[in-house]
């Protein structure tokens, strides 16, 4: 017996679905962003350079962004970025609300909790704006270079998109968050080291990234070229 033909509405619904692997990558992406927020509260030293602990995990979000854009295209990357933004905002908002609620009489760790979850509104705003701009620049560069190069030179576009995205992220975040707090002469160095080290992270992880992308393309049977995509960041549900 032949299956009943799909109605037009059913066909449209199928186009709005995402794969299990995309869902898993999205979960990991959101976890990385939330973990970076917590780890950012610790200052770490890499040799003579002082950085924030978020450097350990935040570059992974750019690697995931590269993989998603390469395999599923800009549309899915756009959904991923906004999903990460909303989940990160929710986490920060819940942490801030909990921080404002008075602790129990026996609770004696208000100072430690506030240090982690009492994110200043100025820093939170700078972080959110920098993330959105940097992530979309990263995805856009990946998408346009893939079309230009006919799908070749993945390594070049992965590295160049990271440089572009991280540069925008740093140029926005540090002046907005730390101007007047950190000496003006130090800000360019902070921005430069963030871009250099996060890009180096991408380069070190590149062999693994390339392997993951290859497996994803084979398993999903997808290798999207954004030849007809609208690059507006607001068309979130246009998949």
TrEMBL record:
**Where in the cell?**
Cell membrane
General function of this protein:
Involved in the import of queuosine (Q) precursors, required for Q precursor salvage.
- The regions listed as transmembrane in this protein's record are 20-39, 45-68, 80-103, 123-142
What is the similarity comment for this entry? Belongs to the vitamin uptake transporter (VUT/ECF) (TC 2.A.88) family. Q precursor transporter subfamily.
Key words of the record: Cell membrane, Membrane, Transmembrane, Transmembrane helix, Transport
Secretion signal, residue range per the UniProt entry: none
What Pfam families would the database entry show?
A: Vut_1 (PF02592)
Please report the name of this protein according to its UniProt entry: Probable queuosine precursor transporter
Species of origin reads: Hallella bergensis DSM 17361
InterPro entries for this protein: YhhQ
Q: Name one GO cellular component term.
A: plasma membrane
PANTHER family (alphabetical): QUEUOSINE PRECURSOR TRANSPORTER-RELATED
What domain of life is recorded for the organism? Bacteria
